[in-house]
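Researcher: For the annotation table, I need structure tokens for 6-phospho-beta-glucosidase. Please keep the output clean. Sequence:
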Amino acid sequence: MSHATVENNGGAFPEGFLWGGATAANQLEGAYAEGGKGLSIQDVMPNGIMTPPAEGPTEDNLKQVGIDFYHRYAEDIALFAELGFKVYRFSIAWSRIFPNGDDEQPNEEGLAFYDRVLDELEKYGIEPLVTISHYETPLNLARAYGGWTNRKLIGFYEQYCRVLFERFGSRVKYWLTFNEINSVIHAPFLSGGIPTPREELTDSDLYQAIHHELVASGRATRLARDIMPGAQVGCMILALPVYPLTPSPDDVVKAMDTAHASYAFGDIHCRGEYPGYLLRYFRDHGIELDITEQDREDLRNTVDFVSFSYYMSICESADPSVDQGPGNIMGGVPNPKLEASEWGWQIDPQGLRVVINDYWERWQKPLFIVENGIGAKDVLVEIDGMLTVEDDYRIGYLNDHLVQVREAIADGAQVLGYTAWGCIDVVSASTAQMSKRYGFIYVDRNDDGSGTLERYRKKSFDWYRDVITTNGAALR
């Protein structure tokens, strides 16, 4: 993966480009109380991030069953192979391995489950890309320790990583430390297992939690190199291009300040230290952190590549009279030049090219697009005796985004691969609905929990298979 060997191939997807799909354990596995699994924060979030967490598991939490991947993984991975996947990104549920997070010994049943998943992937020659922590902090670590606000979580996470690396290190080359690590700013319970409501959480406590996660990520990266010398460790960022709403310099500076909030996470992962603009932010807002010399050494274990999710862009305005529109989950001002999805997320394919160029020029690290897609209300229809979904809107969305990936590669960026989000329908993270569907594979389950859980190939299934088979040449 030497940068010196990168060649601009005129815009074609490079040979060996890793095409595939992505999911998260809490959104598809189900079996929330099987196989020795402990409770995670997801088990008390029946409505996604829209309401405060419940005291305990509730019957209306669709994630308790998910799409039953825990029992149907072989069937689903066979479908991924039929699609032609070169890579499958999935997460390991921390509470399957350490049910309480602070256990002395790991849960063998949980480890054995992921061995079986890897067996199926190996059978079809699909490369695993593993997210170590994907919004699945063990509930005990949230309730008993205050989540990532507590420095002790660094040690618990390091122990968890050691078990994963020693068990699966010979089978998994690509690892991601934390999913969308910058999202903790907006969703502290979901992303950081922090039970204190955001409005009651001090900025110092929030950024101390972020610091602990960054240190843990650095330690995991060093540990991976010790145990798995051939492995590649990446960070994972929620990418969000920020445009000034007008040419006003005040709007440009406002957009810069907002962009810095996400850049900081990549800067620390790629450069090994806190950037000056973040230190200034701490000074200006009276934020004081406990940072040890060991912490500084841990942060210097920089990542091998940068992965990111991309769903939308936002605008920013310094004018306080400008409405902050609803919809975009990360805030910001709606862009009057863009259309939006059914859930209000603005659709901006060119923003993906902007992000890729921006990240490549900023960090000079290989990039991996590990989430991208559109949530939509799909309708099953019968065509030629087969049930399917005529999801031309999804084909159009993904085609337009992948064309921009091709453009960014022509611009000279090194892109390792692309894993479409929710490649099989899963329970939405933000709203905990089944009706917000992303997949190439329809799963017969409804928001009220009814349905057969049968799988059906959508129109986009054949389209994506053709894109992979032709290494992108089928794009329009």
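Researcher: And a one-line annotation?
Model: The chain is about 35% helix and 15% strand.
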